[in-house]
């Protein structure tokens, strides 16, 4: 069984970090850029090398990924399937505002994300299907090019989902999973009977 190594980098702070921005294309703040740069530098100092960088097309991921790929002379692929969850009517709205206007719905969404979602937004099932499709594509691409280790520049929701799957916890635990701004999370990606699987590994 081939195990591929994924290092998942969450984008740093953005201009709309205090909101649910989902598919909104806000930019990194200077601090957000430095958060990502600091994390990557620590891993480069530890001699960690990637074969490819794969990024969400949203600019809070893509702009940093493009600069890093050029710096490290690595191929850069964009994958639209690994964008953040779409929050519908809640896009760009501060959670405090949602709490004041729809406290019960927000509380249900936090506690039972498998059953509740943002009005006119993506359900967790739809989000999971999309992200899994994206990582199936990534698995195939890595196999085709004999790439063993990829840096994936993506979003908190994606990292939380994959960590939840890797730990084999129920999806209602999704929002308790770690995914700090600008931090790196290491997972292994395997395929068994045409189904991709994630498992945790110690970051090197």
UniProtKB/TrEMBL annotation:
Transmembrane segments: none annotated. InterPro entries: His_Pase_superF_clade-1, His_PPase_superfam, PGM_Phosphatase. It comes from the Bacteria. SMART domains: PGAM. This is Histidine phosphatase family protein.
């Amino acid at each position: 069984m081939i195990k591929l190594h994924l290092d998942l980098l969450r984008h740093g702070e953005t201009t709309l970090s205090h909101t649910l921005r989902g598919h909104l294309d806000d930019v990194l703040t200077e601090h957000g850029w430095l958060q990502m740069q600091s994390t990557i530098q620590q891993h480069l100092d530890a001699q960690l090398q990637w074969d490819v960088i794969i990024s969400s097309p949203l600019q809070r991921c893509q702009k940093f990924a493009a600069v890093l790929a050029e710096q490290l002379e690595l191929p850069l692929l964009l994958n639209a399937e690994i964008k953040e969850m779409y929050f519908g009517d809640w896009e760009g709205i501060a959670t405090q505002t949602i709490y004041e206007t729809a406290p019960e719905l927000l509380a249900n969404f936090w506690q039972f994300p498998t059953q509740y979602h943002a009005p006119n937004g993506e359900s967790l099932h739809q989000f999971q299907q999309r992200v899994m499709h994206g990582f199936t594509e990534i698995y195939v691409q890595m196999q085709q090019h004999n790439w063993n280790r990829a840096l994936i520049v993506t979003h908190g929701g994606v990292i939380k989902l994959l960590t939840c799957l890797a730990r084999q916890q129920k999806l209602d635990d999704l929002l308790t999973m770690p995914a700090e701004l600008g931090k790196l999370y290491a997972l292994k990606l395997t395929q068994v009977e045409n189904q991709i699987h994630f498992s945790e590994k110690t970051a090197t």
